[in-house]
């Protein structure tokens, strides 16, 4: 990237010139959220990707988000600023092993969280996100046998709130599993009026302690509508940017991780994207997401079922 340019202005100029839309997940760096045309959770990003008229989608998020956009809009060029932006949860579900798991449970509906590769989606009946998971589970007949993957924490949580007994894949997100219940309890003593907001990818003891559990969009909405003035936020720290923007007078404390020496509240994959990489992606129209057409045809079906139920 040339040093003599105003990178933000150039990104906006290139975006307009090329008819591109910049979409960012809530976990992106603040400056990326601020330059994006659209900021949202996994469900909103998929919905927006399905309906945008732009020629190019720049998905500032992780690989599976770009893949979901490409599966929904195969004729568009979908760029992710850094293709190395993976996801530990998606990685915890390799396609061959998941296929054997599905084969071992004949007669089960295969429900998968959107944090998966296209190959896993192609093996699924319905995709869910943390925003619509409960509604989708509730929409299925009570006696339906269900496999849920890959997140064991979200799966356990869904079983507990919906009275189901879904068979769970044993995967997890390394960011959400690192928050320390003990340290949050200590923090609550210092901030007795603070409410604990937690993403359902967190472990069960934390979810039991939380005042509110929800997707990034749901946590944001709750923080806006709540009468409370202080919140301990147990999810990736990027969401705090929007919370603080929406409620400048409220205080948001990132939940402490077990290891205080690491930047564990950050998802290092999400944080791989930068304004420089975003600029290069727009300028060189690279790196692009590609999905094998046979896999795409199978993968789009469970995503469309999700979008239909979530309308
Ligand atoms: P949501 O934004 O859909 O709640 O997802 C969180 C997440 O971990 C995305 O990677
Ligand atoms: Fe994946 Fe966890 Fe990062 Fe979300 S926060 S992208 S689930 S590794």
From TrEMBL:
Location in the cell: Cytoplasm
EC number: 2.5.1.72
Residues where iminosuccinate binds: 25, 42, 113-115, 130, 199-201, 216
SUPFAM superfamilies documented for this protein: NadA-like
Cited InterPro entries: NadA (IPR003473), NadA_sf (IPR036094), Quinolinate_synth_type2 (IPR023066)
Free-text comment on the cofactor: Binds 1 [4Fe-4S] cluster per subunit.
Keyword Membrane applies: no
GO biological process: 'de novo' NAD+ biosynthetic process from L-aspartate
Positions of [4Fe-4S] cluster binding: 87, 173, 267
Cofactor (UniProt): [4Fe-4S] cluster
GO cellular component, one term: cytosol
Pfam family, one: NadA
Keywords annotated in UniProt: 4Fe-4S, Cytoplasm, Iron, Iron-sulfur, Metal-binding, Pyridine nucleotide biosynthesis, Transferase
Pathway field: Cofactor biosynthesis; NAD(+) biosynthesis; quinolinate from iminoaspartate: step 1/1
Molecular function terms, GO-annotated: 4 iron, 4 sulfur cluster binding; metal ion binding; quinolinate synthetase A activity
Reactions catalysed, as given in the entry: iminosuccinate + dihydroxyacetone phosphate = quinolinate + phosphate + 2 H2O + H(+)
Family: Belongs to the quinolinate synthase family. Type 2 subfamily.
The protein's role, per its UniProt record: Catalyzes the condensation of iminoaspartate with dihydroxyacetone phosphate to form quinolinate.
Protein name: Quinolinate synthase
Species assigned in the record: Carboxylicivirga sediminis
Name of the encoding gene: nadA
